[in-house]
Automatic annotation (TrEMBL):
GO molecular function list: flavin adenine dinucleotide binding; monooxygenase activity
Pfam families recorded: Pyr_redox_3
Record's protein name: Portal protein
Keywords: Oxidoreductase
SUPFAM superfamilies: FAD/NAD(P)-binding domain
Length: 370
């Protein structure tokens, strides 16, 4: 078939240009494959730049690098969001990865032995597709949020940038994970702040070197889906939530953050807590996570929970289809910058084992899709 500008064929298509997509791109490039990375944003690293201003990673730079390029800062640096974004942009440029920006995928389907990726008027075909969008695409807010008094300002952590976005009055932060805890501590400097949610435990942010290495070895190498202990750990973290890193109960007390039970509903337009209290607040910040949205994938690869059924990212029911960057895809580090590279290497090996390497076409890096 003769292909037009809007109809192209590749060996491999990677959907998502974040840390997962760039990691698999590194390995595909080393194999000499004809591939393209599709990113919906107008700039590499854009999703990091949109996060709140004071955000820092809770893993140091030594554990926050992608394959082939160490982070160019002292290894014990705790990175800002913009440092991460700049690094991703520099990474793509260094390895000249073929990236199409503004490439919003409408559907992924299959025809005979090839996958079809549709983007508006563009139709792309490939023998292999790696879905590297992760599982945190859409902000999740409880349905009862719509019942709050319209006078209460509401923000999801995805939209929160800095305290001056909120009204200068009391705030309830809903969700006591790492994001909620960090935002609550920041807001408590300027207004009365309550943090709703259960205590998931606490871990220090800084360890002695030997303990730090041991901890990373444990969560990266020992506790994996290959063994019973790792699978049990995956189940526990999914149910209980991850412990707070670098934030203790004393930190909340010193900052004046009041811990309160979970928010369970709305009464008279106001937040209702699990213990029956109704709060008078002017702001609610939802730190209630994100929902996976794979509705654009027209393939029977999902379980009842909406997540793909896979083994280490390999979808056995659809040969040539892979997922990358999912929570605990193989270990707790699978969705971290410093851990996704191992999963990317594994998937690249599966692609190589399934096919010979075709000649690579010349594609400019970071091309905007018209």
């Amino acid at each position: 078939m003769n292909l037009t500008n809007s109809e192209q064929r590749f060996d491999t298509i990677v959907i998502g240009g974040g840390q997962a997509g760039l990691s698999i791109g590194y390995y595909l490039d080393r194999q000499g494959r004809d591939f393209v990375i599709l990113d919906a944003n107008d700039r590499i690293g854009a999703s990091w730049r949109r996060r709140w201003d004071s955000l820092r990673l809770f893993t140091p730079a030594r554990y926050s690098s992608l394959p082939g390029m160490p982070f160019p800062v002292p290894p014990d640096t705790f990175l800002t969001k913009d440092q991460v974004a700049d690094y991703l942009e520099a990474y793509a440029a260094r390895f000249q990865l073929p990236i199409w920006l503004n490439a919003v995928v409408d559907t992924l389907s299959r025809e005979d032995d090839r996958y079809i990726v549709s983007l508006g008027v563009h139709r792309l075909e490939a023998k292999h597709v790696v879905v590297a969008t992760g599982a945190f695409q859409h902000p999740k807010v409880p349905a009862f949020g719509d019942l709050l008094d319209p006078a209460i300002a509401q923000f999801h952590s995805n939209d929160y940038r800095r305290p001056n976005q909120l009204r200068d009055e009391d705030v309830l932060v809903v969700g006591a994970g790492n994001s909620g805890a960090e935002i609550a501590l920041e807001l408590a400097k300027t207004r009365r702040t309550r943090l709703a949610g259960r205590d998931t435990g606490h871990l220090p942010k800084r360890y002695p070197p030997i303990i730090r290495k041991l901890y990373w070895w444990l969560i990266h190498t020992v506790l994996t889906t290959d063994n019973r202990s790792g699978r049990r750990f995956k189940t526990l973290t999914g149910k209980k939530g991850a412990p707070l890193v670098g934030i203790s109960q004393q930190d909340f007390e010193r900052a004046g953050v009041e811990r309160v039970p979970r928010m369970v509903g709305v009464q008279d337009g106001k937040p209702l807590l699990q213990d029956g209290r109704v709060l008078e607040v002017a702001n609610v910040v939802w730190c209630t996570g994100f929902a996976a949205d794979f509705r654009w994938i027209d393939l029977p690869v999902f379980g009842s929970d909406g997540y793909p059924v896979h083994t280490r990212g390999v979808v056995e029911g659809e040969p040539g289809l892979y997922f990358l960057g999912l929570p605990f895809q193989y270990s707790l580090t699978s969705s971290l910058i410093g851990g996704v590279g191992r999963d990317a290497s594994y998937i690249a090996e599966q692609i190589a084992a399934r096919s010979s390497v075709p000649a690579q076409s010349a594609e400019p890096a970071a091309t905007a899709l018209g």
